[in-house]
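Mitochondrial import inner membrane translocase subunit: structure, please.
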Amino acid sequence: MDLDIDTEKLQKLTPEERDKAISTLRQQAILLNLQSLVSEVADKCTRKCITAPGTSLSNGEKQCLQRCMDRFIESHNLVSKTWLNVQSTRSSGAGMMFNSESPSFS
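Here you go.
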């Protein structure tokens, strides 16, 4: 996917056009993230669960793949939810008590 952005053209857009362009870019980023997640799950779980080539999967391999995918997706969802909560807290002003982007525990 080509994300080459012409800043000169971007500056000439109306606010509505700019919002639409940003929305489109966000949707494309979400799609790329989803494609990456699916690819990563398939790769990691296949390597872990399928130990020998064959014409079909054994019941153990099927169960392993299902559990692996479930754990991976649950972990991804938890990390995403936590990250969104942190970002929401920062943007609402509650995270402004820190002098830098990273929290200080001193």
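Notes: The first helix runs from residue 7 to 12.
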